[in-house]
Predict the structure.
Amino acid sequence: MDIHEYQAKEMLAGFGVTVPPGALAYSPEQAAYRAREIGGDRWVVKAQVHAGGRGQSGGIKICDNEQEIYEAADGMFGQKLVTHQTGPKGKGIYRVFVETAVTVERELYLGLVLDRSSQRVMIVASAAGGMAVEEIAAEKPDSIVRALVEPAVGLQDFQAREMAFELGLDPALTRSFTRTLQGCHRAFTELDATMVEINPLVITGDNRMLALDARMTFDANALFRHPQVSELRDKSQEDPREARAADRGLSYVGLDGNIGCIVNGAGLAMATMDTIKLAGGAPANFLDIGGGATPERVAKAFRLVMSDTNVQAVLVNVFAGINRCDWVAEGVVQALRDVSVDVPVVVRLAGTNIAEGQKILAKSGLPIIRANTLSEAAERAVGAWKHDRSQGFNPRSAASANTLRVVS
Ligand code: ADP
Ligand code: MG
């Protein structure tokens, strides 16, 4: 789970990281008012979206008076900000952060990530801050310094001092750097983060070290034990389909195709998506209903997939081990009866209670297309979708609602 810059700053400040004075606003009036509260004569208005790259996309504006702040904020609220990290649809701006503008002498990069190969928290820093870490890695790989934290003893001050030296920091700043690093590391481990990034970490004209930007990502599986983090979730920044799925405890990733997928197991879900591609279609989603899925859970998954208006055919592929084909079949039938599903539905079942499952599907009297193998199922789903398309029929569009459907 991601949080906003202002939230990450507040969190990190609680762990001893120094940040510039700033305040949040929900309207242009409030932005101007908050600047007055902060004081000073130069501010930055920063769009709060769950993505970096705002500086290059109009999401960061330096302002010299309240009028400019009002106008900068007014130009942001309600807009979609598109950066290289948001995808082409962009992310909505509903909050702005007003912050004291500081004079920047040097920009550093600081990131903490989970390094899976060493099973350690890895600290990555670079003297070439301000640009994205991918750019630093491509353009100035030699500027990157790394350190691994030994979990038994935690981050050691000498590691921070060593890094400060490698970054060529003024020795007078070693202490600030150590405190910043220790604060980030404590926040990372105590809050079950998977990423903490300060880019840029700056050195100001008066030789102070400040976090000018901050990003944090948290392990969704550990959120239950950090209510102070989980309450920071902002659904306006998430793909609405994925937000709905998360609310229902389903593992779902929205994609751009038209074939909705309901599958058990991440591996089988990936294989199903591949097979759909092979059959000439494109999956609308990744969805893993998990093991031991009840009919209610299957029906929930079905409704979720159908709520995506791009879905023009559904493929249910369940290889039941812990799952039961009869429960899956019941769930499919239940969902088809509840919501008027107007697209072709292909079901392929295998494994536990297969005979009972097939019976439930057959007895339902619903127009479910059955398949025995995965490739057959994918071909039928893609075939049905292509057939509709060749007839100029889009089952999900209002224009096609009264069109006579020719089914071969
Ligand atoms: P993003 O990473 O999304 O582009 P940042 O918060 O890193 O957003 O801001 C981009 C750039 O804007 C920074 O590298 C810095 O040069 C400038 N900037 C951001 N905040 C301030 C601030 N408080 N004072 C002065 N400059 C700032
Ligand atoms: Mg940044």
